[in-house]
Amino acid sequence: MIRERYLNLAVLAGLLALALWALAGDQPFTITLLTKVVILGLAAAGLNIALGIGGLVSLGHAVFFGLGGYAMGILAFHAQNFAPLELGPLSIAGTKSMPVIWLAAIAVSAAVAVVIGLLSLRTSGVYFIMITLAFGQMFYYFAISWSVYGGEDGLSIYVRNGFPGLNTLDPIQFFGICLAILCLVLLLSDRLARSPFGLALNAARQVPVRVETVGLSPTRLKLLAFVISGAITGLAGALYADLNRFVSPTMFSWQLSGELMVLVILGGVGRLIGPVVGAAIFVALEHLLGGLTEFWHIWLGVILLLIVLFARGGVVGLISPRRVGHD
Amino acid sequence: MKKLLSAAAILALSAGLASAEVKVGMITTLSGGGAGLGIDVRDGFMLALKQSGRDDIEVLIEDDQQKPDIAVQLADKMIQSEKVEVMTGIIWSNLAMAVVPGAVAQGVFYLSPNAGPSQLAGPGCNQNYFNVAWQNDNLHEGAGAWANQTGYKNSFILAPNYPAGKDALTGYKRTYQGELAGEIYTELGQTDYAAEIAQIRASDADSVFLFLPGGMGISFLKQYADSGVGKPVIGPGFSFDQDILGAVGDAALGAVNTSQWSKDIDNPTNAAFVESFQAEYDRLPSLYASQGFDTANLLISALDKAQPSDADAFRAALKAAEFDSTRGEFKFGPNNHPVQTIYAREVVKEGDVLTNKIIGTAIEDHADAYAAECKM
Amino acid sequence: MSTILIIEQILNGLQFGIMLFLMAAGLTLIFGVMGLINLAHGSLYMIGAFAAAAVAGATGSFLLALAAAMAAAALIGAIVEMTVIRRLYATDHLDQVLATFALILIFSEGTRWIFGSLPLYLNIPSWLAGPVTLPGGIQYPLYRLTLIAVGLLVWLGLWWLIERTRLGIQIRAGENDREMIAALGINISKLYTLVFALGAALAGLAGALVGTIQSVQVGMGEPVLILAFVVIVIGGIGSIKGAFVGALLVGLTSTLGGVFLPELFKLFTDPATAQSAGASLASMSIYILMSLVLIWRPTGLFGARA
């Protein structure tokens, strides 16, 4: 049994070490794969706040991932074509600067999360799962037919956006940016879980009545968690778009929402490092199995199934079981 | 399947022994609902390589799962880690738009065996991007021209509500000179067409033009045949090709469709291709298989003259396109897209097998509408 | 647009709704009794269609094909229930979603492995082919009328099964109190296997019937799965009546939205833009309907109050 804190550090350090090893061995694609792990881990870490702490099973988190992606795509598209985005009286020139794009991604995702959250939180259980799915489908179909930004073809951004002082085209530098953000977000969610807000949220998930009696509104707590969660997933979407230098409506698809959920459960629901471990396993499986057989999805399915059936608490739960009877 | 694996194995083995000189990266769709098309392109391509007997071409094949982000990551892998010099294989326009601009910007040659989005034919054209199939609008333009020749005056046209669907209707209208009885965008992935068929029945259309790729076309054709509406159907070859005719069945009989290839185009290369494809894979080749086959032969013809490392000479060799195409003559226009004849075909039954037979020429030496916007 | 056409489109909407009910009935039954979210329901639908295509191809008999579709789906459903699903009843929805998501991957690629990547042939038998003339001069395909009849029969059959039979009493008891029926000496795991197999058989039947006029291909179950979920969520999960009403609502919204929204937009803008914008809104319409229903009634139209 390993203390969770050490495990968390070991996973993050392991990612960094692998990237440096790949750099030394001149294997840029390995760094790209590791960057994908970090970004998907970040997206799933966002979901984990809603899912793990708030108990909100959202099958629509692809909405935020896609919004982040399109925030990047649209801003960079207008910048690369030198055609400002006209919003009534407002004229936005577009930008190729990552920090500005991140802020936009976070703001848009958070704003949409407020609306979706307010409407969805009227329901619970399976209905919550399905109403979030419905919002995902609305965004998906809208994006497909939104021809200004490429519709189903998506948008290509030919050169990765910039970050002051760094060369983002260099895989290891872009990896560094993503890893730094991931560490920051994980630190934040750790603080969040231990804060009065996090404790109240945890209580709201388990015994809503008790929270109400002390004068807090469980719905408002959950809404805040949902918004923070959506904003983080949105930020991950912007980074993912920059990794591929491309956005498309598939970022809004329900399969992607499902995959994010798979990452969280694979790693361990409510465990800080769970989403990152889940992402690492998923990307590794996709990469390794894909090379072995044309029908690799079968084996991916079998492995997922075995984990659900025999490794409750995900992989992190296997390595570092929780002592207290949580959940 | 087994045969194919052994062929690939031999290829990989011989490539290993003779220290491969050219690395080709093929990203195509090999899993999920769209896998049929990718498998056909791959099989056509590998058949041509096998027949050439060359051992200096190493092909890396990866499955993009029809997801653009996966395709981009595979392209990064092939270019950054595997150092491929030539890429090919992508089936879908949205995936091509995700991969091709980045790949050619890094100096890789890309030979498209299927997708031909308008952006890459017009302003976004590139000297290292060659399309061996068609610009997306070509077959629809052929359909419009054929409708004129047949004397249709009032077409009802429909396509899914996404960029390729809009391009299809635009392409048809570009050449078609009659009136429109109706114009409908259906939902992408729609499976029930009762409402659309009722509108067609109620209209005074004399013909129906449709672009509904894959399962959408199968569903529509079955339901349309059963509705008894019976107005003549015309469409691009995609909705009437070997990969789906078997599933549509007799409902497709008599439908007219346009294509740059047909298994009865009369030239020795094509006859040999159809025969050897059947012998190798035990099925009739499709449009996509012929495109994969032509792509490989174009590549081989260029490699006979120059190596990709000598980019200018290799590019000129590709542009010359001196290979025996299954379509007969083959030449590139100024934007590296084919200038070619589009045939009208009719779905017929040969014994128990549904297939296509040429009934006429829709347009001769047809170039795409975007070439003028291409500056390179 | 003529009145006849409008009536025909309403009929099309109802017909599409009944088709959706066929797909959703098994899903809502399984959820109602076992509380299980089964994402693999679409896979059972696909299995039914493939089994029907294979048997119809080999024997030429449509009725045999339908029987085979139900048998194959029920059999595979029972096996899956006994090996995997059974372990999920006690877990939360999250694990169920992941496990049945994994089953989708296995079934989809497994089917492709066995049947290949190309769509299969399955068509309307000659005795059900072609249109008939309805009062008012509407030409309507006989097969679609048959689908409506089968859908209504399934609805009646389920009602009879649940309200009037011994098994139905056990099922209703199981919905309310698992321990109770175990105490009454009923073998609950056998009951669950049976219900799951029944739900699977309904999915298989739907796959065969609907697959006959659509495309029998790998992945055909996924869009259906989403639609079926929309239907049962609108109706209230676990309620057969809800599934029926929800299905009709979704069928009408989807069909009439696709027809009338573009017409509506033409009043404000040019035809090409109107077509495209109307079609976009139409494809979102059922999801908008679903969120409106849930905002109004958070447990669906006929769902148990939370």
Key traits:
heterotrimer, A: 13 helices, 71% helix, 3% strand, B: alpha/beta, Rossmann fold, globular, disordered N terminus
What's the helix and strand layout?
The complex is a heterotrimer of chains A (327), B (376) and C (306).
Chain A lengths: L3 H21 L3 H26 L8 H19 L4 E3 L2 E3 L5 H23 L4 H21 L9 E2 L14 H24 L1 H11 L1 H6 L4 H27 L1 E2 L6 H14 L6 H19 L3 H15 L3 H6 L8
Antiparallel strand pairs in A: 1-2, 3-4
Helix pairs in contact in A: 1-2, 1-6, 2-6, 2-9, 2-10, 2-11, 3-4, 3-9, 4-9, 6-7, 7-9, 10-11, 11-12
Chain B lengths: L1 H16 L4 E7 L6 H18 L4 E7 L4 H14 L4 E3 L4 H13 L3 E4 L5 H4 L7 E3 L6 H13 L3 E7 L2 H13 L3 E8 L7 H9 L4 E4 L4 H13 L5 E4 L5 H7 L7 E4 L8 H14 L5 H17 L7 H10 L10 E2 L5 E13 L2 E14 L10
Parallel strand pairs in B: 1-2, 1-3, 3-4, 4-5, 6-7, 6-8, 8-9, 9-10
Antiparallel strand pairs in B: 10-12, 11-12, 12-13
Helix pairs in contact in B: 2-12, 3-4, 6-7, 9-10, 12-13
Chain C lengths: L2 H32 L6 H19 L2 H22 L9 H23 L15 E3 L5 E3 H23 L1 H11 L1 H6 L4 H24 L9 H15 L4 H27 L4 H26 L10
Antiparallel strand pairs in C: 1-2
Summarize the structure.
The complex is a heterotrimer of chains A (327), B (376) and C (306). By secondary structure, chain A is mostly helical.
CATH class of the largest domain in chain B: Alpha Beta
User: What gross morphology of chain B would you assign?
Assistant: globular
Total strand count of chain A, please?
Answer: 4
Helix content of chain A: over 70%
Q: What coarse outline of chain A follows from CA principal-axis ratios?
A: globular
Unreliably modeled segments of chain B: 1-19
CATH homologous superfamily (4th level) name of the largest domain in chain B: Response regulator
Give a description of the structure.
Chain A is mainly alpha-helical and 327 residues long. Chain A has one domain. Helices cover 71% and strands 3% of the residues of chain A. In chain A, the strands form 2 sheets. Chain A has a two-stranded antiparallel sheet. In chain A, strands 3-4 form a two-stranded antiparallel sheet. In chain A, a hairpin with a 2-residue loop joins strand 1 (85-87) and strand 2 (90-92). The longest helix of chain A is centred in the last third of the chain and has 27 residues, at 218-244. The model of chain A has no long low-confidence stretch (mean pLDDT 89). With 376 residues, chain B is α/β, with parallel strands linked by helices. Chain B folds into 2 domains: 2-134 and 265-332, Rossmann fold (3-Layer(aba) Sandwich), CATH 3.40.50; 138-259 and 341-373, Response regulator (Rossmann fold), CATH 3.40.50.2300. Chain B has 13 helices and 13 strands. Chain B has helices spanning 2-17, 35-52, 68-81, 93-105, 118-121, 138-150, 163-175, 194-202, 215-227, 242-248, 268-281, 287-303, 311-320, and strands spanning 22-28, 57-63, 86-88, 109-112, 129-131, 154-160, 179-186, 207-210, 233-236, 256-259, 331-332, 338-350, 353-366. Chain B is globular, with a radius of gyration of 20 Å. The relative contact order of chain B is 0.14. Helices cover 75% and strands 2% of the residues of chain C. Chain C contains 11 helices and 2 strands; from the N terminus they run ααααββααααααα. Chain C has helices at 3-34, 41-59, 62-83, 93-115, 142-164, 166-176, 178-183, 188-211, 221-235, 240-266, 271-296; strands at residues 131-133, 139-141. Chain C has a two-stranded antiparallel sheet with strand order 1-2. In chain C, helix 2 crosses helix 8. The N and C termini of chain C lie far apart (44 Å). Chains in contact: A-B, A-C, B-C. Chains B and C meet through helix 2, strand 7, helix 8, helix 9 and helix 10 of B and helix 1, helix 4, helix 10 and helix 11 of C.
